Structures are given as C-alpha cells and as structure tokens.
Amino acid sequence: MAKRIDVEDLNVYYGDFLAVEEASIKIAPLTVTAFIGPSGCGKSTFLRTMNRMHEVIPGGRVTGKVLLDGEDLYGPGVDPVNVRRTVGMVFQKANPFPAMTIYDNVVAGFKLAGAKKSKKEYDDIVERSLRGANLWEEVKTRLNRPGGGLSGGQQQRLCIARAIAIEPQVLLMDEPCSALDPISTLAIEDLITELKQRYTIVIVTHNMQQAARVSDRTAFFNLAGVGQPGKLVEYDETTKIFSNPTKKATEDYISGRFG
C-alpha cells in the first residue's frame, strides 16, 4: 500500500555546508507532489533524503526526521537498502544497464539482492512491470535485446519499470523528462497519472507547466543567495500555488520575474 511521507525539521548537509535548512512537509498517499524552484536551491538534494540516497555522497548527512507512515527512515537500526526498496527512484538521465537485456534490466534489483525466483516468476514480474510502465507492447518481442538500444523515452520508461518491479510504496522522480522530446515527455506524464493509482509520487521538475499538469500539490524551494542554504518557501495545492501563491517569492518565480 502506498505510504504517506512526513518530513520534520530536516537539515541536509554536504560536510559542513548546509544545503537545505529546516524543511518540513506532509505528503499524502497516492498523490503527486512536485518540487519546483531555481537551480541550486536544494530540490534534488531534498528528494534524495527521502530514500537515503543523499548519504551515498561523501559527507552527506541529515538532521531531523523523514517518516514513512510514522517510521523514521533515519532511526536506529533502519537498513538503508530496505529503505530504497520501499522508496524507489528514477533519475534525470535514463540509466538502464546498457549491455543488459531489457528483461534483465527489469529484474536487476532482485538479482542484485540474491533473490531466488523461478523463470516463471521472473517472466511474470517482467510483464507486470513493463505493462505498468506502458512499455510492454513496444518491447515484448525483443526482451532479449540490450536496454541501451531503446530510444531515450523508452529507456526512461524501462527505468521506471525497473523501479516498480520491486513493488515500492513511494516513487521519487528527479527531473525524469529533462532529456526527453515533447512526445516522450507526454508519455511519461501520462504514465505518472496512471502510477498515482498505486504509488505516492514525488517529482522534481524545472518545467512549471509539467508541475501544473501532473501534480496535486507543489512545493516551491528557493535560496537567499550564493552559499546560502535552500529553503522550502511555500507548499500548497498546485492550483493555488500557480494561481494565488501566498509568498511574493513564489509569485515572482511563477511569473518569470526571476529563476
């Protein structure tokens, strides 16, 4: 079942540098939340704290809490690997394993974890996941060809299939369409709307029209200046953020006066 996310008083660091300061946010299950804001304001950094990918970076650490249905992902004894199974992630650049077949790309998470499954079980997972990513009909006759041979949009949907294969409850997407053409972008946006029926989704996007199209709620991040930490300025229903924001900084960004 999709989970709710509650972030409380989160500070995110790279070594001694404070990258995001005192951010708190509540994300309901089975919704799409968009993070918008100028480059360098901490959107992607904040996103990566939600599945503990931030700490993979040397010096990356946090203070505060990230709660998944009330369980602190940074609590004592919590295994980061299990966190990343529950909270899947799709990156800005499609990153299928290029030499691996389409089939093996989808089941890579299971094989890396040493899971013991039958051929039939893997076949079912591959079909379910590729159908879930709206890719099955396009690739079902060439599952044994390299994933790197697909188009950019197909590769990104393959990465989504790989992420949902392990049945996470939350799906994080870090600018998943930034390298794609308009047709592929539309396919991913349609897919996000479908995936919302099963997953809680958080997406970072530089495309404000995309945020307006796909998200239920939008969070605007900003930073006071170079070397200053990013801050969560405003978080509300997407329609309100785009039509009647509370903060002047949000209005200035939405209207194109800066950023």
From TrEMBL:
GO cellular component, as recorded: membrane
Gene3D superfamilies per UniProt: P-loop containing nucleotide triphosphate hydrolases
Domain ABC transporter: residue ranges: 5-248
PROSITE patterns documented for this protein: ABC_TRANSPORTER_1 (PS00211), ABC_TRANSPORTER_2 (PS50893)
GO biological process: phosphate ion transmembrane transport
Listed SMART domains: AAA
UniProt cross-references to Pfam families, sorted A to Z: ABC_tran
Alphabetical list of InterPro entries matching this protein: AAA+_ATPase, ABC_transporter-like_ATP-bd, ABC_transporter-like_CS, P-loop_NTPase, PstB-like
Record-level Gene Ontology MF annotations: ATP binding; ATP hydrolysis activity; phosphate transmembrane transporter activity
Keywords in alphabetical order: ATP-binding, Nucleotide-binding, Translocase, Transport
Protein name: Phosphate ABC transporter ATP-binding protein
